[in-house]
């Protein structure tokens, strides 16, 4: 069961990472300039590998303050996440935080019922 | 009609290979990994399940190309920037390649990568009467924000238990590409949501429960009921990239409720899911 929980958690974090492109409710960072050799499996990449060949996630030691209950909680909910600190930390580690500041095999979509 | 997603013997095959090695490249190429799977060392039931699964996935991935390419006119009509036009076509090419890669896994498992399909008419919904922006956003939310975000989660789960080099290389490629396909949707929503007027926002919002329930129903049917197979077969299924249905259903439900719906709310839509 523990293994299943680990897989579920990994899947959720990968999905969360891509939704952050919406530019709201959290932040992560991408090691875009240097293709990764460990691809997210070592601590420098947090737990997420969202793009083959590149690290994406939250760099080690760059998580926001503990009140956020994790790196992806919505800062507007409790108002305590220090995303500025987080971004500064990411910068210092050479990670891009551009995705934080964006404005703002599918199936065929169904029609709206009449 | 038959689908066999393999290259021809003409010069276009070289051009296709060049595309894979340049424009579509994302790290190491699974096409360069020896397509070998020691099926005799695996549980026969797992091999049979994997053959069925990868053949079906071959057809699903290939068919997705027509959905993404069908979004191009809708992106143009909604006056989206040209990078959105170009990237959606890249996504369509990714899906064609995925079809070929899934076929290669099926072949490595000992079956011909050919399958009977009813047609190739899959396309985004027309949403007659809707404005171009509403039409686009409804379809992008369904095909990209919902479908591809769930695909990212499912493929992430599949990768965790897969240790066979060729299968893992293919899953790595699918995972990397699906990440872009999902981000495309969320970026599209970020780009357009402020431009929606009140009527348009309401028209998108009323579509969300339809899209979520349609998608969950469709994928749940594909996942099927729990298998109840013995642990050895379950282990080898996982090594071959076949998720245990109960886990797949969990990941589907978890992703829609704990990832997608909250993000749609973040985007300003009042949405819930049963």
Question: Which key phrases capture this entry?
Answer:
heterodimer, A: 114 residues, mainly alpha, B: 274 residues, Ferritin, two-stranded antiparallel ribbon
Task: Give a written overview of the molecule.
The complex is a heterodimer of chains A (114) and B (274). With 114 residues, chain A is mainly alpha-helical. Chain A has one domain. Helix content of chain A is 28%, strand content 4%. Chain A has helices at 2-19, 75-78, 83-92; strands at residues 29-30, 56-57. Chain A has a two-stranded antiparallel ribbon. The longest helix of chain A is centred in the N-terminal third of the chain and has 18 residues, at 2-19. The termini of chain A are far apart. By secondary structure, chain B is mostly helical. Chain B has a single domain (2-6, 27-266), classed as Ferritin, CATH 1.20.1260.10. Helices cover 68% and strands 1% of the residues of chain B. Chain B contains eight helices and two strands, in the order βαααβααααα. In chain B, helix 2 crosses helix 7 and helix 6 packs antiparallel against helix 8 (245-266). Chain B starts with a strand and ends in an 8-residue tail after the last helix. The model of chain B has no long low-confidence stretch (mean pLDDT 92). Chains A and B meet through helix 1 of A and helix 2, helix 4, helix 5, helix 6 and helix 8 of B.
Span from first to last CA of chain B?
A: 38 Å
Largest interface (C-beta under 8 Å) = A-B, 42 and 75 residues
Shape of chain B: globular
Number of helices of chain A: 3
As laid out across the biggest beta sheet of chain A, the strand order is 1-2
Mean of all residue-level pLDDT scores of chain B: 92
Instruction: Record the strand order, biggest sheet of chain B.
Output: 1-2
How many strand segments of chain A? 2
Tell me roughly what share of residues is in helical segments of chain B.
Answer: 55-70%
Order of helices and strands of chain B: EHHHEHHHHH
Uncertain runs of chain A with pLDDT below 50, 5 residues or more? Answer: 38-53, 65-80, 99-104
The Rg value of chain A, from CA coordinates, equals 16 Å
* Major sheet summary line of chain B: 2 strands, antiparallel
* CATH homologous superfamily title of chain B: Ferritin, core subunit, four-helix bundle
Structural class of chain B: mainly alpha
Give the number of DSSP strands of chain B: 2
The first-level CATH class of chain B is given as: Mainly Alpha
Run of helices and strands of chain A: HEEHH
